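Researcher: I'm comparing several assemblies side by side, and this is the next one on my list. It has 682 residues spread over two chains. Same procedure as the others: predict the full complex and return the structure.
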Amino acid sequence: MNDMKKFITNLLLFIFLVVALDFLCGGIASYLMSHAKGGSTQNNYYIANKMESNVLIMGSSRATHHYVPSVIEDSTGLSCYNCGEEGNGSILAYGRFKQATDRYNPRVIIYEVTPEYDYFKDADNSKYLKYLKPYYSNSHVRLLIEKFGNDFDNIKLLSKMYQNNGLFLTEFIDNVIKRENNGGYSPLNGKLNFNTNLERERIVRDIDDRKIELIDKFISECKTRGIELLFLISPRYKTVTDEDYFSFAITIAKRSDIPVYDFRNVSDISENPDFFNDPLHMNNDGAMYFTQHYICKILKNVR
Amino acid sequence: MLYYKYFNFICANISLIFQSVGFNIQFASNNILVPIGLSFYTFQALGYVIDVYRGNQEVEKKFVDYFLFVAFFPQIVSGPISKASELLPHIKSLPTFDYSKVVQGLRLLLWGVFLKTVIADRACIYVDLVYDKYESLSGLNCVLASFLYTIQIYGDFAGYSLMAVGISKTLGFDIINNFKRPYFATSVTDFWRRWHISLTRWLTQYVYIGLGGNRISKGRTYLNIMITFLVSGLWHGANWTFIIWGALHGFFQVIEKFLGLQKSNSKGVVKIIRIMVVFCMVNFAWVFFRSDTIGQAGGFIMRMFTEPGFNTEGIETLLYFGLGISILFAVEVLREFYPTRFYKLFGTKLIRWSAYLFITAFILLFGVLDGGQFIYANF
């Protein structure tokens, strides 16, 4: 009995110390997030707490690498921020949209459509919640996590350490190393490697109805707030096969009366290998050209 | 086990043989789900039957006790493979609460979770990234991925084993520990005394010794080693890659025995060199274990040696992995080379508790916690 008593006492003490440590680490993480000098920590924090740009770019890596905010700002006079994120789509975009609209209404949102992440079925959607978890205290973020997270996430995320799981080291590094933030734009500087196979086939997969619901909600809220929402498909290199890949996205846009701009096959870009880092992503030269010659024109018309 | 695990493999290879002589014969494949842990509890049950046959174990008359022995939950998925003489006595006696056992068990459980979530699952992200597109990545990426897989499989399997041993201990059951710092082995023979110890024991007692062991001619001993490790390879999976992996380990051990290198009293720099050489040999063999086909393994190995440069994709994962592996390396070095100092250090309550809190925090901050899979659960 004494052994059992000793065990329970020590167990309770251990749990208490873990909880205390959790609060301490949470405090450190908060400090690191709000004092980051660059990188994804600073980017994430800025979007969640400070950003008030007129034009927002949202979507996957094709958003973050293809749209240059400084070009848009110089050309149109509208402030611009690129909220795109590698390997992410509608779930993170909606989360960032809600974080932003808690403070203000942007005038225009350019949404770079990537069905892979926007509405195709995934075995595990929790990977899209990585950058939202530190902001679990936000009610919109909590709702998204309830909908798309794993079982017991609502219990696990009571832990501040778990909220920063997989981000803590990055948060620390981003406080030590200053990195340039180009308005959220992340330039690629490579060129196509003709020694490798450049053909890519983008295959249509099953659709996740919950993500479609989310996209419909996103569209509806933009309309309610008077935000001009544009769906965009930016160029890719001519060796990519994607005839039916975007069909459903175009259907969604048309039924909701959202303009769709499909620049997949604009020959001055898609046939120019110097504009591409890889078949699916333009490099900085391509992004600058695309933003100047196509995006700025659209925005001027929208104004 | 033959039906669930090897039926499709056997049929596919028979078809290939017939096709090579001009007969196009195809067998219908079975699409039945393989029961989880099949290989483990099959060997555990087989071991019991053989021990009873040999007179080393009394027949267990109570079916419930026998059933619990075969289906003991901490070890049913991925071992360790227990002997009846180890587990049945525990099952037959009612365990009482033992404070030190419970604490030891929880300690092992915590370290097992660390190995799995911080080491194995983190390494897995980079390994999968590189193996999925190694043809467009550089040789150094492939070398790194092969190294990370070597650590991943250790973290995954040793992590699971420690969790199984830890949970068993908290319930009052002592089961065999499956790992003893295998990557500090000074020969491949030594490696198999430290890696998956329960499987090595099973294969030694029921295959190698059954074939005559080393009590016959040298040539026959070498053959017995090769057969034992081919069986080991086949046990791991129904694919030629596993068979080649097993054959490589058998071959390395035959060469060691031939050259008299299997035992080692070396110290200092020689010992370190031996450890590194054995690590490289084992690392090389793991490429076959990880690959889906022999072609992929061959292509991957070629790329390691022919493609210069380094692609920075996955660099963040490597940084996180680097943190975890530093802790693992420090602990393993202490336990292997300075065990007295290790136990003296962790004999202090303050150090022990600090370590528990540090590891817990590390798991929560740096572990991959969104539901990974255990590699050995596939066997």
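Model: For your comparison table: Strands of chain A lie at 55-59, 80-82, 108-112, 200-201, 228-233, 240-241, 260-262, 276-278, 281-282.
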